């Protein structure tokens, strides 16, 4: 924690910058995907949803005191697999959120879903509950690749779920994973074009990475899983940018592509360094009142979180007041992921150390960044090496 009130205090003009949203984590899945390091858990018996709803309500009430009065521009149900929730559960949680924070008239309310036929049938119930945007975990449009990724749906099920989602919800997005074992640029271009042909407004396109503690890490360490090398992965990245841009879904963030105006508003809260309430097992938040910004983290284990909420009224394990320099660092790390870049004047107001003009100039000479007034942007050539760009700026 920071040592003085001066360092801990957030400038008044930054209190609403980036917006405010609410994240709700549903931690249960039917199966654990081998690449996934998210806080997801498989249980033999279905969870008691009524008991979890009561706990969500209590944690929402507690978190409201940490945020003060705010209007939520977005709500995001993530996981885990939120589409395992009954529509009535989603409706009850949304009611509790509305009681704590008024929702903007055009609030974006997103629910992540897996495209199995059983879960897809619930879409109309979620729409009636208030969800107006769905994000589908398609991951691949190749049945053999879906099996290799541990997914429980087929390509046919995925495409039917996308079509149903488009008929029910105002806005639809889905995810794909690329740089998979054995994938070549030509096959990926065809698969990506087929995905775009589904008519969705938004795609999240993630390069496969080997995460610690996953089943894929064990296979990779044993030499049983071979993923594309850096040059091959770069070729796949280039195809991703070329195909999406040509089809009217350019990147607005390093892994996210959208038609103009269809960007994920909730995720923009993170990337523009807004404030957000983190509700549920393992949720992270950035909350604040009276000029503070606090980082909150809740208990990850679902049953332990439930017991803690029932005993204490919340599942928060840590609540750290962020110093202004720490806020500035976070704002820079998140904002440089966006093609719109970051406002260096805001970075300075938050307490960030000035970035040496020589560093910016050197990166600009390489075609990696551009400085336009006070706005610093990473250019297309810089995104494949974003970590190195950030390291150079922070050196």
Report on this structure.
With 395 residues, this protein is of the alpha/beta class. The protein folds into 2 domains: 267 residues, Aldolase class I (TIM Barrel, Alpha-Beta Barrel); 54 residues, no CATH class. Helices cover 40% and strands 22% of the residues. The chain has 16 helices and 17 strands. It has a 9-stranded mixed beta sheet, sandwiched between helices. It is globular, with a radius of gyration of 21 Å. The protein starts with a helix and ends with a helix. The N terminus is likely disordered.
Secondary structure: elements and pairs:
Blueprint: H1 5-8, E1 20-26, E2 28-29, E3 41-42, H2 49-67, E4 72-79, H3 87-100, E5 103-113, H4 117-120, H5 123-129, E6 133-139, H6 143-148, H7 155-168, E7 171-178, H8 185-196, E8 202-207, H9 215-221, H10 230-246, E9 251-253, E10 256-258, H11 265-271, E11 275-279, E12 284-287, E13 294-298, H12 302-312, E14 316-321, H13 324-335, E15 342-343, H14 344-349, H15 357-365, E16 369-372, E17 375-378, H16 386-394
Parallel strand pairs: 1-4, 1-11, 2-3, 4-5, 5-6, 6-7, 7-8
Antiparallel strand pairs: 8-10, 9-10, 12-13, 13-14, 15-17, 16-17
Helix pairs in contact: 2-3, 3-5, 8-10
